Amino acid sequence: MPVYLIHDDTVTAHTTSRGLPADALLIRSEEELAASGLSLPRLTALWNALPGVLSKRFKTRASAVHGLWTGLQKLEPTPPPAEDSTPAISKQAQVIVLLRREQGASLDEIVAATGWQKHTVRGAISGALRKRLGLTIESTRTDAGRVYRIVDAG
């Protein structure tokens, strides 16, 4: 059974209530919609915001509740959020992981990992890592090119 999310002036259908905003109104039945306390003008505005419906004015709150509930049941539910428990790691964090390795990381390795251009990598190392985060970064030139490494202070 789908759950309908009323947030601001939009209504969306979902297959589960997991992960939905806490400040939104969740509706599972016509009775819950009737008990929600939404005013006749608000119910009418929600009806008129539904996709593919003609604008309408309801005479009573009961007819608005019934009409809106009928319209809600025609909405296609959005799929539930993915079960990925690992949060996405930022590109800056990826660079830090590479630079914390004992051998460090070459400019080309960082470019390949982040998709950034070389000047962006150099700017991130100089600005974000050295200046903003205060990390001590060692830069050495090798036959393979420039290699950067975070030096632990202590």
Overall pLDDT score: 86
Shape: rod-shaped
Helix fraction, binned, reads 25-40%
Number of helices: 6
What number of structural domains do the residues give? Answer: 2
Strand content: 15-25%
For the largest beta-sheet, the strand count, sense and barrel status come to: 3 strands, antiparallel
Strand order of the largest sheet: 2-1-3
Q: From the alpha carbons, calculate the radius of gyration and give it in angstroms.
A: 27 Å
> Distance between the terminal alpha carbons, to the nearest Å?
58 Å
Based on the model shown, name its key terms.
three-stranded antiparallel beta sheet; alpha+beta; DUF3489; DUF3489 domain-containing protein; 2 domains; Arc Repressor Mutant, subunit A; 40% helix; 6 helices; 154 residues
Question: Could you explain how this protein is built, in words?
Answer:
With about 150 residues, this protein is α+β, with helices and mostly antiparallel strands. It folds into two domains: about 5-75, no CATH class; about 90-150, Arc Repressor Mutant, subunit A, CATH 1.10.10. The chain has six helices and six strands. The strands form two sheets. A three-stranded antiparallel beta sheet has the order 2-1-3. It is rod-shaped and about 80 Å long. About 15% of the residues are buried. The mean pLDDT is about 85. InterPro entries: DUF3489. Pfam families: DUF3489. This is DUF3489 domain-containing protein.
